[in-house]
Amino acid sequence: MVNSKTKGKFKDFLLTQGLKSTNQRELILEEFLRAGAHLSTEDLYLRLRKKNPRIGYATVHRTLKLFAQCGIAEQRHFGDGQARYEASDHDEHHDHLICISCGKIVEFEDSRIEELQIEVAGEHGFSIERHRLDLYVYCSHCSIQT
Amino acid sequence: MVNSKTKGKFKDFLLTQGLKSTNQRELILEEFLRAGAHLSTEDLYLRLRKKNPRIGYATVHRTLKLFAQCGIAEQRHFGDGQARYEASDHDEHHDHLICISCGKIVEFEDSRIEELQIEVAGEHGFSIERHRLDLYVYCSHCSIQT
DNA sequence: GCCTAATTGAAAACGAATTTCAACTTAGAC
DNA sequence: GTCTAAGTTGAAATTCGTTTTCAATTAGGC
After folding, report:
1. Are B112 and A117 an interchain contact pair (Cβ–Cβ within 8 Å)?
2. Is the CB of B40 under 7 A from strand C?
């Protein structure tokens, strides 16, 4: 079964918050986990629509916010003005390479960069809560055409 | 005189693009340079309004886009859903520390981080066009209260 | 089953960005 | 200086993604 652990986490979250477990929420979580990538609300809504036309945009929107609260998803912005959500993995943080040409998004992580960030913030007397590092690139495929 | 070099660059840009030099554009550029910080369209519009009520929001918006095209300003997003513009300095790139609590923005640069970014992108066969590194922190003042 | 509170989805509202369009201004030609 | 074509302006309208409203529906404890 796909990600039964995450599903459990979400159910627990709903319980502790006094919220209800509904069919829509289950469907949305399943599709969200299946899709994997960096989805906008619109993307997910359209995917769900195909399988079950009875799901509304507002519900998808609200459920994604619940995912974020629950800690199983994170909201991100890559500069195209649309919010995207990705399944969050609290053990390993990662940053993004975004192709300016085709929009492809690749994840990466580099502990040396992370350490330097902490150092820099510390020099200013600040403590890092979170950070975002986006590298806007031409991917290997797109840079051929340039 | 404040930033006559930048003003010249903008005039040249207008000329080469077949655009016209207008009073509004001059006023907007002057106020933009004077203000310095990370301004939203709204911010700049309000500042201009005080001195000259005859300037429209649309013109400020369009002029800021011209600045970005011309290379004398850069558009940024810090997650509050509003675009901000800052005067760009092509010689020295910098990143941002943003206080989650009070919204204060501090600039910094660290060449070691920059180098590692190039290295990481290279490992994936990508070439960096630009990047964004935002560190969301509690600044020294705000972290006292936490 | 019953009741209460949460949830749903369509539509409306929202906020920021962007476009429209008629009136106006600029800059080059004469 | 005058004329003219082309670019610019600002108020209002439009767009686009996000968020809220509200009446109808559903979940889940009793």
Report:
1. no
2. yes
Specify the 3-state DSSP secondary structure of A37. Answer: coil
Q: In angstroms, what CA-CA distances link B65 with A63, B3, B40, B131? A: 36, 19, 12, 19
What does the pLDDT profile of chain A (146 residues) look like in tens digits?
Answer: 557 788 889 999 999 999 999 999 999 999 999 987 789 999 999 999 988 878 999 999 999 999 999 989 988 888 778 899 988 876 678 888 888 766 778 889 898 999 999 999 999 889 888 888 989 888 888 776 54
Of A99, A116, A126, the CB nearest to B97: A126
CATH number at residue A66: 1.10.10.10
Separation of alpha carbons B89 and B107, rounded Å: 12
Interface of B to A at Cβ within 8 Å reads: 77, 79, 97, 99-100, 106, 108, 110, 112-113, 116-117, 120-121, 124-140, 143
Domain that holds residue B19: 4-87
A21 DSSP assignment? P
Q: Are residues B82 and B104 in the same domain?
A: no
Phi, psi of B37 (to 5 degrees): -65, -155
Q: Using the beta-carbon criterion (under 8 Å), do B120 and A143 form an inter-chain contact?
A: no
Token pair 């195909």 is at which residue?
A50
Q: For chain A, what is the domain count?
A: 2
- What is each CA distance from A68 to A19, B90, B97, in whole angstroms? 15, 37, 23
Residues A34 and A100 in one domain: no
Same domain assignment for residues B60 and B100: no
Are A126 and B143 inside 8 Å of each other by CB? yes
Q: Phi and psi of A56, rounded to 5°? A: -90, 155
